Amino acid sequence: xxxxxxxxxxxxxxxxxxxxxxxxxxxWVIRDFSLLPVRSNIMSGPFSTGAANGGKWRMTLYTGESxxxxxxxxxxxxxxxxxxxxxxxxxxxxxxxxxHKEMPVQHVTVEAxxxxxxITRSALLNPANSYLTDDIFTLCCKxxxxxxSTSTVACTLGGQLRGPDLKGDLSQLLTxxxxxxxxxxxGEKKFHAHKTVLIxxxxxxxxxxxxxxxEKVEGEANLSGMSAEVLEEMLxxxxxxxxxxxxxxxxxxxxxxxxxxxxxxxxxxEQELCTSISVDNVVDTLRLADTxxxxxxxxxxxxxxxxxxxxxxxxxxWKKMAEEEHNLVAYIYNKVILNYSSEDGK
Length: 346
What we know:
This protein is an alpha+beta fold. 38% of the residues lie in helices and 29% in strands. The protein is built from 13 helices and eleven strands. The strands form three sheets. Strands 1-8-5-6 form a four-stranded antiparallel β-sheet, with no helix packed on it. A four-stranded antiparallel β-sheet has the order 2-3-4-7. Strands 10-9-11 form a three-stranded mixed β-sheet. Strand 3 (56-62) and strand 4 (69-77) form a beta hairpin. Helix 2 packs antiparallel against helix 6 (228-240).
């Protein structure tokens, strides 16, 4: 007797909605804030999220008056309406992010902007509140533009289809010695790895293992200048494109990524260090960025120093750098000149 499906068989269906989006973080430094006239609008320079529509954005600050709120608007200059959202906050004189504001998703046009109320002008100017640093007002915004959405539907019978897990498989490959063909040694610890992965992920390993160098012939490489823990994290990234412990070891990992020319990992470390920068560590961060040729991090650290120069100059690390590394001090002051020049040219 031929078999047939029962009418009560369950078909499990899924639908997925996915939005393509672009995001940027913009920091606006306003000098001599107390000199700005009341009830006036000032506008930042233009910036972009990199969205496909190519529209430009500007932050606009309404300075308010003594007892009234200052307000912030995100003004859009583009050919087509977009859907966007924004988070904004103030950076106080200690470098803390305060007074967070959220502007939810809405349609934005040239005529309709994102906006929020910030804080009263009198509160901003009150020294006891520490909102300003040497009369410098620093505003940040994280702007997200939703570009388009796609919808897909998938149906499976008898449970969810399980496909290959490339990241998981490569992670397992890292811990499985069966097919390893090279040993990386740091101190007393040895890591079994695969030449193909190392060659594809690092130009330095490629040169080491494809030319007739000692490491290629002997199948073992002694690595210096890093700890076993850092090498393990670097290998994890090379196999899985993830660095789960980056927040804890970003400085050491940046040096390793620079040494072995792993560009994506280097960029990730720069971004991580930017998020944790402070008055106490900014000089050391600048020196590290200079050593590792990390220009993005170096520029960010120099701009941070310019904004918080009064407090930074009190630190031991600044005094030591001012005595020993005149090139970095010159770099910081050149950043000030470039910033003022770009503002004057607007």
